[in-house]
Amino acid sequence: MKPEEKARQKIDQLLEAAGWAVQDVQQLNLGASLGVAVREFPLKSGEADYLLFVDRKAAGVIEAKPEGTTLSGVADQSAKYVTGIPENLPHVQEPLPFAYESTGIETFFTDLRDPQPRSRRVFAFHKPETLKEWLS
User: Fold this and answer.
1) Residue 66: which of 118, 7, 135, 13 has the closest Cα?
2) Sign of CA dihedral 72, 74, 77, 81
3) Which are the contacts of 45, defined by CB distance < 8 A and separation ≥ 6?
4) pLDDT, tens digit, for every residue of 27-83?
5) Which of 5, 35, 120 is nearest to 72 (CA)?
6) DSSP secondary structure code for residue 41 in this structure
7) 18, 27, 22: which is closest to 9 by C-alpha?
8) Residue from 29, 25, 85, 91 nearest 57 by CA
9) Do 54 and 136 touch, CB atoms closer than 8 A?
């Protein structure tokens, strides 16, 4: 198993523990849960490792990296995925407000609505209910 695949397995487990329904893009069902994390979602700006939907609208992305990757330099990569949302895809705003970078061991989070957004270490993925509350 490749290191990034190992990281994605851990990320899947962390997302599920936080209340997200994790799906492949081919089995997309946005009604499965309040929060749906879709793997390998194609965007105009590239393929997001995960596109996060809250209440059926795209709200954020996760960039997965192999364990041992220094995540402080990865925020630029996830930032390109918060833009380029296809026109026909429901989304809360563009750019999407939430970006994560994760190895499955450590995770960083950015709320792009902050006056001076920067990537911060978090101990877990936020629950879909939390992101929904922040969006209201």
Assistant:
1) 7
2) negative
3) 80, 81, 83, 84
4) 999 999 999 999 999 999 999 999 999 999 999 999 999 999 989 788 888 888 999
5) 120
6) E
7) 22
8) 91
9) no
Q: Residue 3: what residue type?
A: P
Per-residue pLDDT reduced to its tens digit, 88-108: 999 999 999 999 999 999 999
Structural domains of the chain, ranges and CATH numbers in brackets: 3-135 (3.90.1570.30)
Q: Give CA–CA dist 133/79, Å, rounded.
A: 22
Q: What span, in angstroms and rounded, lies between the C-alpha atoms of 31 and 47?
A: 22
What are the tokens at 114? 């902050």
Tokens of 20: 């997200």
SS3 call for 136: coil
Q: Which amino acid is at 84?
A: G
DSSP 49: E
Whole-model pTM? Answer: 0.96
- Residue 9's pLDDT band (cuts 50, 70, 90): very high
In sequence order, which ranges of 1-136 are alpha helices (DSSP H)? 3-17, 75-81, 128-135
